[in-house]
UniProtKB/TrEMBL annotation:
Residues covered by the NlpC/P60 domain: 152-274
Keyword Transferase: no
Organism: Roseinatronobacter bogoriensis subsp. barguzinensis
Keywords: Hydrolase, Protease, Thiol protease
GO biological process entries: proteolysis
Record-level Gene Ontology MF annotations: cysteine-type peptidase activity
Top-level division of the source organism's lineage: Bacteria
Protein's UniProt name: Peptidoglycan endopeptidase
Family, as annotated: Belongs to the peptidase C40 family.
């Protein structure tokens, strides 16, 4: 059975690459668009529960439309779902991405001007001009140049990226500085460093590397998986994770976490990134 999270089939229409593989009423090549909203929920069904979120500039293939909603597949990780059509814009070419934990878009190149939107780490913008310490985006808003970097630049250490998000509130299915969950903390940190990463912890466990033998010492940058949870190893005796225990991104002593989570799940995998 195909995983619906990463299978571009709305139930009515499927992407053409699935032709001959699934039984769908209609197939389509889809239409490429970019997220124009600062942040958008990716829903399981039109007006249904949130599974993940997409950030401004994310490229998606629109496969189906139903009323006010569009069914899309995200280019970066293949995740599928429904979002409000009003969140979408043209398929422009971003030039910069946000490298600060968060920033604002301003109405003018002036720090005292009204802010129009908040952007999260790894949101993307197309810069068309400059004024002082501000860069103008293609929709006429302004972002502080200190908070963005060329789209081709990459972070060097995903743990260091994840550490910039300490204190971010926990949010189930969240993918931004406003709120994120365990798998988003892993995905964001790896994407900033130019590494592809699936959206959910079970997909990450299957994709990011082979499990190490039991008893292998943990080191900074490793990942530990439980059923439905993932954490960065930030030091041999410490993890960093977005967790419902503190409702935030926080450090936790490794053995304390293992003991605390044990009634729900043992550690299922210890992975060292390829």
């Amino acid at each position: 059975m195909r995983d619906p999270r990463i299978t571009p089939f709305s139930g009515r229409m499927a992407h053409i690459r699935l032709q001959g593989q699934i039984d769908a009423p209609t197939f389509t090549e889809g239409q490429m668009q970019r997220l124009a909203a600062p942040l958008s929920d990716l829903l399981r069904s039109p007006d249904g529960p949130r599974d993940r979120q997409l950030l401004r500039g994310a490229r998606v293939c629109v496969i189906d439309r139903q009323g006010a909603f569009a069914y899309v597949q995200a280019e970066a990780d293949g995740y599928c779902g429904w979002l409000h059509s009003t969140a979408l814009g043209a398929d422009h070419t971003p030039t910069h991405r946000v490298h600060a934990p968060a920033t604002h878009l301003y109405s003018a190149p002036d720090l005292k001007s009204p802010e129009r939107a908040a952007l999260s780490l790894n949101a993307q913008v197309e810069v068309i001009g400059t004024s002082g310490q501000f860069l103008q985006t293609h929709d006429g808003l302004w972002v502080p140049q200190q908070h963005v970097t060329p789209i081709t630049s990459r972070g060097a250490d995903p743990i260091s990226v994840a550490e910039t998000l300490i204190g971010t509130p926990y949010l189930w299915g969240g993918n931004s500085r406003a709120g994120l969950d365990c798998s988003a903390l892993v995905q964001l940190a790896l994407q900033v460093c130019g590494r592809p990463c699936p959206g959910d912890s079970d997909l990450q466990e299957a994709a990011l590397g082979p499990a190490l033998p039991a008893g292998r010492p943990r080191q900074r940058g490793d990942l530990l998986f439980w059923r439905g949870h993932v954490a960065w190893v930030s030091a041999p005796d410490m993890i960093l994770h977005a967790n419902a225990h503190t409702m935030s991104v926080a450090y936790e002593p490794l053995e304390q976490a293992v003991t605390r989570i044990a009634p729900e799940s043992p550690v299922t995998a210890h992975i060292r990134l390829r």
